[in-house]
Specification:
By secondary structure, the chain is α+β, with helices and mostly antiparallel strands. It has one domain: Thiol Ester Dehydrase, Chain A. Helix content is 36%, strand content 30%. The strands form two sheets. The chain has a five-stranded antiparallel sheet with strand order 2-4-5-6-3. The longest helix has 39 residues. Bound molecules: coenzyme A.
């Protein structure tokens, strides 16, 4: 029997497109989409892509910095396109591109792109190996390469924060004693 981890998956196998309509309950007092609601939709779209890739329950390990470039108005259509950019040992980088369409005149703009790290977990919440992914097009290959660079930056940042935290913790302990 072929093990789940031996099955190479294509990027297109993980692709998800999710469309949402901005309703009054999604907006702030200015009538624009709440940042938190957009973050939720991005998280859900990314989780679906990670689950399509692995065939397992996947959890969000981290979300990269997010910026909001332009307000998204009440009544807009929000289209979220998600796919796995690259699989590592147990984690995967998922990219989500957010496009906003005005249903009245058909105009659209690119609102945001976010990168998230997901991990497939077993019944005991332990990380599972992620199946490898095969980039096929030039665009998929570019995203695959960039995902490797971003992972390196994330790991370096995490190590830097951990060592800052432990050096502060040690010096606080010295002051207390
Ligand atoms: C994500 C989780 C499964 C990782 O489990 P763990 O026991 O810490 O396992 P590891 O440290 O081996 O990390 C597993 C993978 O996740 C990656 N990872 C963990 N934390 C990360 C972070 N903050 N940023 C980026 N990657 C991270 C690791 O690099 C590793 O990747 P790799 O195997 O591809 O190298 C665990 O921390 C967890 O369950 N977190 C809560 C998830 C959750 O509830 N999300 C919703 C939040 S509301």
């Amino acid at each position: 029997m072929t093990d789940r981890i031996d099955v190479q998956k294509r990027v297109s196998d993980s692709q998800v497109e999710m469309t949402e309509l901005v309703l009054p309950n999604d907006t702030n007092q200015l009538g624009n989409l709440l940042g938190g609601r957009l973050m939720h939709w991005i998280d859900v779209a990314a989780a679906l892509a990670a689950m399509r890739h692995t065939g397992e329950v996947c959890v969000t390990a981290a979300i990269d910095n997010m910026s909001f470039h332009a307000p998204i108005n009440l009544g807009s259509m929000v289209i979220l396109k998600a796919s796995v950019n690259r699989a590592f040992s147990t984690s995967m980088e998922v990219g989500v591109r957010v496009e906003v369409e005005n249903p009245k005149d058909g105009t659209s703009f690119h609102a945001n792109t976010t990168y998230l790290t997901f991990v497939g977990i077993d019944d005991h919440n332990k990380p599972l190996p992620a199946p490898p992914i095969i980039p096929e097009s030039q665009e998929e290959l570019r995203r695959f390469e960039s995902a490797g660079v971003r992972r390196q930056i994330r790991l370096e940042e995490r190590n830097r924060l951990n060592s800052l935290h432990s050096s502060r913790y040690t010096s606080n302990k010295e002051v207390e004693s």
